[in-house]
Write a structure and sequence with these properties.
With about 325 residues, this protein is an alpha/beta fold. The protein is about 40% helix and about 20% strand.
Length: about 325
Amino acid sequence: MLYHTIENQSTSKKEKPVVTIVGILGKQGYSVAHTLLESGAYHIRGITRRVDVPEAVKLTDQGVELIGLPLIPGYKKEFTEALRGTDSLFLMTPNIAPPATYEFDLGKELADAAVEAGVQQIIFSSLENVDKLTNGKLFAPHFTDKARVEAYIRTLPVRSSFIYMAFFFTNLMEFYTPQLIGDTLVFPIYLPKDFAAPFVDPLTATGPAVLEMLSNPDQYDGKSLPVIGDIISPQEMVDTFTKVTGIKAEYSSAYERHEMLRHFPEFASNEILVREILGMAEFAVEYGYFSKDRDLEWSRRIDPGTLNWEGFLRKTNWKGQKLVY
């Protein structure tokens, strides 16, 4: 069943292109919504299961139309109805914790619904196909299933573009939070100490990338482009944290299995999750997080204000505490 919020806007949505955001209350979706609101160029519709939470109410107060639907397979009819009248779709599949494996099924169903509803453009948040690139050696379905959805979308009669998000800065706030040991904040990070990896703030970087693709649909048709805020090693992240906050900090490896479980013993109850985290990290180190032909400068060219790690720390004033988004 669909639940619609009441529109609160003075300009009719028919006067502006309609952009629907799947998962509008997630980090990427929320970023896209705020960037499009600031542009004033689009009527925004969002699909989320949480239409009554404060963040949703704020969006409806700004004129966003929300539709309440669960983001799980089995709702193609409802997805199609929700997408009717949409010109462009920002599509992402939500975080699906292992052992659940329906990410591809959900992405395919949403893409099929978009085509059936007459959507003209899909922008999908994808990632590299780890299974294909490593010949099955590494296990990272969070990456591979997104790549499979991308490959499927490319077969459909619709204009499509793809963003590839780097590791999130916010991972260290939510999932791999530093631990205070004595007078030192210890950062357990899932990458080797001196390995420079791509990171980004999804809350501020996603929106400008998607707006660029929406504004230039022909230029970006068929393109897959990374969204990056910084390429930085864990040791550099820790050193920068101390420089910005004045808090004594040090790196501790969570790259190997025994190190990961020593820092996060609660992960031991979910073997598939552990395999995925380790596979994702090893893929980044051994194969490169992004394929060699990706344009690693694109997102910072089109959005010169993209936050690097230092800028992110200064903007958020984060001091190492656990946060949940």
